[in-house]
Amino acid sequence: MYQGGVSAMLRKILFWSVAVIFPLPLVLTYDSVATEPEQLRFYIFLGLIAYSWWLLAIALSVRPPWLDRFVGLPAIYGLHGMLGVLAIYAAYLHSENSYSPSQLARDLGDWSFYGALTVLSYSVFFMSGWLTDRSRLLLSVKRILERVFRHQLSVWIHRLNLLIVVMVCLHAHLLLRVNQHLSFMVLLDLYTVVVLGAYAWKKWIAPDTYLTGTVIGNEARGESTRKMSVALDGTAAKLQPGDSLFLRFEGNPAVSKEWHPFSVTDDNQETLTFTISQHGDFTRRLGRVDPGTAVRLEGPFGRFESTVQDRGPDAPLVLLGMGAGVAPLLSLTAAHHTTRDIHLLWAVRKPEDAYYLDELEKYQAASEGRLRVTTSVGRFRRDDLSGALSAEEVEKGQFFIVGPNLAVIANRRLLRRIGVGVRRIHDERLTM
Length: 432
Hints:
52% of the residues lie in helices and 17% in strands. The protein has helices at 2-16, 18-21, 24-33, 38-60, 65-71, 73-97, 103-126, 136-145, 151-158, 160-173, 176-179, 182-205, 304-310, 326-336, 357-367, 382-388, 391-396, 405-417, and strands at 211-220, 225-232, 244-250, 260-263, 271-277, 294-301, 317-322, 342-348, 371-377, 398-402, 425-427.
């Protein structure tokens, strides 16, 4: 168990070290040809670092599947957000402590800085969970504002970072002290073309190679949940228990064509079932998706199954789901209920929302006592968890939590307070 924790930590250290490594070729190349005084050169380096971080953030936004399997989407999203913040700070120091005789270069630099600051501020509130995952008041304000600032609009506002990168690149090309160094300019342009080219390929060309399928079922489960079934045209051979995929519905004007992530409920690789909580502006319109609608699927993504395998066969699995958050935990249960000790805890708003009890009873009958199921109407409180969990589960169990972000964070705190180590608590919130 300890070795698995060290392995996960090493992966994240290696991943975050990319933020240091990625700007180095640009910085070292410029340092080898620059003639500016040392102090001015330092602030030019900061500008190069800021530009590199913006490019790296764009590269991470394409969600490379191999990188997801290495560290997971939450880590990718986390570094993406931190790079945006750090780049703004580095760019500010650069702009305040360097100069240019070209008015156009100065204007492009200023426009790109204030544009990046505006996009970052917008994204922190609407697209990250740094604020809204930790405050019910801000989450309520966000939901009200989303009636105007819908998800699709937010995505396009976020894509203004592409224009910002182009303006910064033009800014560099207009600076005589910079553009006179051919080797450096070739490297700068190579960085830019490769990253923007990879983004364009992944967002607008690669989707033609993704999995495709057709909606064959879309039924309400409770007041705010839907169960959607998609028959694939092929097989999701890389799908693992607990995984999620990004879905885009084709040819249906009732819903946007933006990508949205949903977790797979079972382990069928030919017909995928998704249990979807309808709380956002996009998911509330999913009732309009009729059987026969074409679907394109990106993925799969997720590290739940890898974590289960890394942490050894003897550790009990404790799966804590809130509402529709039980979906990926059901697929883990289906895969391991005959070989692992599993305790599934499921919190629902109303008794009738526990719509998978029949399936769970079948798993329990086949598990020969290895699967326990605890349901709660209303969220689990500290006393509930203390009473439901065995001493062995608290001491050795690997905990997997899925649900609304506020609830996930609250349950992480509860588990810590009753003695569960932080390295044994896992979630895959796709916000930072």
